[in-house]
Amino acid sequence: MFDLRGKTALVTGGARTLGLDAACVLAAAGCHVAITSRSEESARESAARLSAEYGVDSLGLGLDQVRHAAVVNAFRRVLDWKPAVDILINNAGGGSGTSPALLFERDVEDIDELLRVNLNGVLYCCREVGRHMAERGSGKIVNIASIAGMCGRDRRMYTQGGLKGQPVDYAAAKAGVIGLTMDLAGYLSPRGVCVNAISPGGFERGQPEEFIRLYSERTPLGRMGRDGIDLKGAILFLSSPASDYVTGQNLAVDGGFTIWH
Ligand SMILES: NC(=O)c1ccc[n+]([C@@H]2O[C@H](COP(=O)([O-])OP(=O)(O)OC[C@H]3O[C@@H](n4cnc5c(N)ncnc54)[C@H](OP(=O)(O)O)[C@@H]3O)[C@@H](O)[C@H]2O)c1
Fold first, then answer.
1. What is the rounded radius of gyration, in angstroms, for the C-alpha atoms of the chain?
2. 170 in catalytic set
3. Is residue 179 part of a domain?
4. 3-class SS of residue 202
5. Which of 122, 135, 209, 210 is the most buried (most CB within 10 A)?
6. Catalytic residue among 124, 158, 170, 215
7. For residue 243, is it within any domain?
8. Does residue 3 form part of some domain?
9. Which residue ranges of the chain lie beneath pLDDT 70?
């Protein structure tokens, strides 16, 4: 059920952090992987490491997904490399730009850019790769959303924990990703393509100690997510035949954060 030998995946933002975790777990299941970064050099370096470690074919590509033409071009390069793409992990995103996170203090340019990366870019990838999958009659699309798209945040935790937090435009984009996942799943189900989302909670990555403490206390499982570990199971499940009867869902990988209201 979890065997991906002979399959090919495209992982956007797959050169580092959670995207690289996704690429690693797919490669470990035998899947060939194409990964992207805004830096082609960085994508190539990570791709070479994936091939060396897991013995699969890999391709590193430059992609800034705010431009639709760049998405089309990157996907064309993937199809020059392999005849078909079976799995799309729509992971690239995040960030809040350089201006403050609070809406009234935030630069409009940062708001627009965040929406372009986290919502438009995800849609462009769904459009180009989804069309290819629909023509073939099979495929798995996994969109990485966020619990920020599921519930409002307690900003006191960020202030007390010494962080600027993430802006409401991030929540808007991620809620959009969850919405488009459900609707696209309906559109692509008759064409044999499953579309699901994963909403990670906060992952521990050098935040101030006080923030980690507050966040962990607020989380039923008592800790933040771990890079290199906690996202992988959900990625493998939603990319493999194990989830063939699952579509249009949003799986929270958040230690239970969203169950407490
Ligand atoms: N970390 C968390 O706690 C958390 C929680 C909930 C959801 N998420 C979501 O999970 C995903 C991965 O998060 P992360 O923490 O691994 O993020 P990260 O460390 O900030 O990395 C962001 C990734 O997105 C790529 N990216 C950013 N802008 C891009 C653009 N314009 N075009 C193409 N690629 C772009 C980056 O690629 P390069 O820098 O290599 O170009 C990088 O791979 C994101 O969608 C994020 O919103 C993360």
1. 18
2. yes
3. yes
4. coil
5. 122
6. 170
7. yes
8. no
9. none
Q: What is the C-alpha to C-alpha distance for residues 52 and 46, in angstroms, rounded to an integer?
A: 10
Query: What is the Cα–Cα distance from 176 to 182, expressed in whole angstroms?
Result: 10
How far apart are the CA of 126 and the centre of ligand 1, in A? 17
Cβ–Cβ under 8 Å, residues 26 and 33: yes
Q: Model confidence over 167-215: pLDDT tens digits? A: 999 999 999 999 999 999 999 999 999 999 999 999 999 999 999 999 9
> Which CATH number do you get for residue 166?
3.40.50.720
Nearest to 162 by CA among 103, 201, 206: 206
Per the structure, the count of domains in the chain is 1
Give the pocket of ligand 1 (CB within 6 Å).
12-13, 15-19, 37-39, 42, 63-66, 91-95, 117, 121, 144, 146, 200, 202-203
Contact 161, 154 (CB under 8 A): no
d(CA 146, CA 143): 10
Specify the pTM.
Answer: 0.98
In a domain, 257, yes or no: no
Full residue range of the structural domain in which residue 19 is found: 8-251
